Amino acid sequence: MSTIHEWFTKFKFLRILSLSHYYNLEELLDFVGNLEHLRLLYLSWTNIKNYMKRFSHLQILKLNWCSYLEELPSNLHLLTTLCRLEFIFTRVRKVPPGLEKLKNLKIMMDLFEVDHNMERLRILRMH
């Protein structure tokens, strides 16, 4: 039986990956992080607690209904190709600094009390 790592190496040109409703997600994130061509990543309805891996070419990241997710990674602004970020029904209450630098980013999120970090996001398209 092949390992998870062997399975992911067979899909090295994968562009879209949905791991929604997958609950052993932590064991996969390192392997998923090696998918250089990945553009769309759906992690909705998972038990992800923190999301630290950097995907340099990721365009869409969906983290909806991740009830354990409390914060977004501080290096999220380094995903310069990210154009859509969704984190609806999560525990996230702050956005990391630097997101205002991503001029093409559209964000879908829950409404919560706006702190000074959120003020910088006025220039982004909020939906």
UniProtKB/TrEMBL annotation:
InterPro entries per record: LRR_dom_sf, LRR_R13L4/SHOC2-like
Keyword Lipoprotein: no
UniProt keyword annotation of Magnesium present: no
Residue stretches in coiled coil: none
Stretch forming the signal peptide: none
Ranges for domain Disease resistance R13L4/SHOC-2-like LRR: 8-113
Entries under Gene3D superfamilies matching the protein: Ribonuclease Inhibitor
Keyword list, A-Z: Repeat
Protein's recorded name: Disease resistance R13L4/SHOC-2-like LRR domain-containing protein
